[in-house]
Amino acid sequence: MKLKKILFIICSLVCVNTFSQILSSHLEKQTLALGEVNHFVIKIDNLNNQQVGAAAKNELLPFHFEEVKDSIGTKPDLYERKIEFAVYEEGKFTIPELEFKVGDKILKTIPYEIDVINTAQKGDQINDIMKNKEVKLGTKDYWELYKWYILAALSVIALIIAIIMYLKWGRKSKSSPVVATNQTLKELDSLKKKKYIEEGNYRSFYVELIEISRKFITKQYHLPADVLLTDDLVHLMKENNTISLENEKVVEEVFLRGDLVKFAKTFPDQKTMENDFADIREFVKRSSKDLEFENLRKDV
């Protein structure tokens, strides 16, 4: 009876070892120099045609480890993963337990601790591997090197000239101030009916409110509000003196708040949106007084 029990136990162990999966891992070095490439190998035996689930290529190791190569080999009874990596910071770093799913089983590697050291000594002389070569550059080479800088500079110059020409000789709108005012008030009423304020849709509200305002300033005051950034527009209004200080303050506050909303840096409440809407509406109504004053000033 005892002999039978012993034989049974031995057979059981053999069967377990034969049909269960065996995971093994090997790390080549546990002490590395900065930037030195290390090798890490993971094997799973006795797969019996089962699929292995693991992290995607180049995503197995933590972010401190810069993976140079990640190759995966599979056979009916074997899964092998070879990873080459380097570390570019000094200190102690850990490769944690890594999970691999085989069928319904989760297999884990053992953790490894790696010590990364800087082998360079203070005062070490750094020599070139080979002497520097002199390369003569032609006109075409210089153009390839600097063409984007040149094109960007020309674009900026062209934009500045276009703005100056527009301000000095730009074609004025044929519509009268009253027509522009009434049209803008209708557009504001249409915006109000969309119920952005009641629904708390502050981003859509400010985008449309500022778009209407920019179009109105361009038409009514002949300022390029439709192409200028907010800071540039405010600066131009202060230099131009066409818009009254009261109206100028409204435009500056609402436009700056609109920019903050656009980039999710502020979240206005319903009362703030209602106040901004009312202020812009009053600004549109008061614009005719600005133009009357401007005409009187020109006559004088």
Strand order of the largest sheet: 1-3-6-5
Task: State the helix count.
Answer: 8
Using only CA atoms, what is the Rg?
Answer: 36 Å
Cα distance spanning the termini: 127 Å
Supply the helix-strand structural class. alpha+beta
Helix content estimate? 40-55%
Overall 3D shape: elongated
Beta-strand residue percentage:
15-25%
**Overall pLDDT level:** 83
- Regions with pLDDT < 50 over 5+ consecutive residues? 11-18, 296-300
Order of helices and strands: HEEEEEEEEEEHHHHHHH
Query: What's the β-strand tally?
Result: 10
Instruction: Give the biggest sheet.
Output: 4 strands, antiparallel
Write a brief caption for the model.
Helix content is 50%, strand content 20%. It is an alpha+beta fold and 300 residues long.
